[in-house]
UniProtKB/TrEMBL annotation:
The keyword Metal-binding applies. InterPro entries: HARBI1_dom (IPR027806). This is DDE Tnp4 domain-containing protein. Its cofactor is a divalent metal cation. Keywords: Metal-binding. The keyword Metal-binding applies.
Length: 290
């Protein structure tokens, strides 16, 4: 509408100029009309300036708006990417946070986690998973970290899958099962039985004065399991003490608190005496103790 108005004013001014030239109007009238004409011309110039300024401002505002939207979109995507990369659990996020490492894994520091991880040897690099390899961003150390959290904190498979951004199946049927099996096969080769000198050196003073010959303190522990389908397995694993189906190992520790003996697991119906008789514990102790 403003553009049409400007064109109309231009045509009106041209028409008035022609009329003045033809009719030879008196100087007073001509002067007055010319003032009006010049006044209208000034208005026209002002309106033209306003029109040009508005057009320029509108374009600049539009460009600025588009630029702002693009910048906001870039910042949003950047924030989303940054959030996605820092939200999920990773062992390297706690490299300098020993309190968090101790809370999640039970080990005192990041360096201690690496030490325990390295004790598994080079064979873990060729580890064969039960189903498939985990995603590439789940490094071996990060998988080990996940398994430690599972064992120490008793996190559910679903929670771990969300914490580490992996599928529930990978956590439940692949990572935890594979790593527990590997740790069992590798660490059972380590001789954890403590020597007599080591036991006496780390034993509490009061305990050593009363029981100087004690090498190991043993006790049975029961782990609940799902009820087996076979009746014979149900009978073998049913514990009268726990009133449920369990598996049962006997664990021994030194007076100083170091775990030094673990038997294979048996069904919950087996007694502690039966498990000890079937183990090689007697052969490890000195004859004078027996």
């Amino acid at each position: 509408m403003l553009f049409v108005k400007i064109i109309f004013l231009r045509m009106t001014i041209l028409h008035m100029r022609k009329q003045v030239e033809k009719e030879n109007i008196a100087p007073e009238i001509q002067s007055e009309d010319m003032e009006n004409v010049f006044y209208d011309q000034d208005d026209l110039n002002i309106e033209m300036d306003i029109f040009v300024v508005e057009e320029c401002m509108g374009k600049s505002f539009q460009d600025a708006s588009v630029q702002t939207e693009i910048q906001c979109a870039v910042e949003y995507n950047s924030n989303q990417t940054q959030t996605a990369s820092t939200y999920f659990m990773c062992i390297y996020n706690f490299e300098h946070d020993n309190d968090a490492v101790h809370f999640y894994t039970g080990l005192e520091s990041f360096q201690k986690v690496q030490l325990v991880f390295n004790s598994l040897g080079e064979s873990i690099k060729d580890m064969k998973y039960i189903y498939r390899k985990p995603p590439p961003y789940m490094t071996l150390l990060n998988q080990f970290f996940l398994c430690l959290i599972y064992l120490c904190q008793k996190k559910t498979h679903f929670e771990l899958s969300r914490m580490f951004n992996v599928t529930l199946r990978d956590v439940r049927n692949n990572i935890t099962v594979t790593w527990i099996k590997v740790m069992s096969l590798q660490w059972r080769e380590i001789n954890i039985w403590a020597s007599k000198e080591l036991v006496q050196f780390y034993a509490p003073t009061d305990f050593y004065k009363k029981f100087p010959l004690t090498r190991v303190i043993i006790d049975g522990t029961e782990i609940p399991i799902n009820k087996p389908a076979l009746p014979l397995a149900q009978q073998a694993t049913f514990s009268q003490y726990k009133n449920k189906n369990t598996v049962k190992p006997v664990i021994g520790m030194t007076p100083g608190g170091l775990v030094s003996f673990i038997t294979p697991t048996y069904g919950g119906s087996a007694s502690d005496r039966q498990i000890i008789d079937r183990s090689n514990l007697a052969s490890k102790c000195d004859l004078e103790i027996l």
